[in-house]
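Bumping with the actual sequence this time:
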Amino acid sequence: MSPAERSDFMLIPTLDLIVGFGWNNGRAFNDCWILKENKWVALPNKIPDKIPQKRHNCVGQVLNEDSFLLFGGADFSQSGVYFNDVHIYNRPMGSWKNALVLGQTPEKRAGCCSTSIQMPWGEQIILIFFGGNWAKSVDFQDFFVVTTQFISLRALCSR
């Protein structure tokens, strides 16, 4: 078994490659797959009501060896629904949870870029989200930072 064909998916390069969400021919996805030893394995979702809504053009970043973060995206199969929510997947637990967002929440968007920076003084990881777009032809040029110590978002620059 392997993931359905898709574009605009979330790709997280870890020790094992994680592919999730995405879009194909008018259909959005909310599944995640891991490529382990050249075989695709679906990541379990042990708490079905906590699975993020189907979406594409979202971004994901590794938090640590056991978890990754999902942000934003859109689902055009639902008349252009955009998201600004943050979710965390815990691999050992096989479940998602909504992240507590402190501070200013970014506007709903899809297609933004993200990167992560491991801080030299400890376990904290800084995640940076930049840009993206929204349905009304709005292109964003703002930065948002997620600090994993508290999983908080705050704006660095606003448009």
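The tokens above came from a reply further down the thread. Residues 150-159 have pLDDT under 50 and may be disordered.
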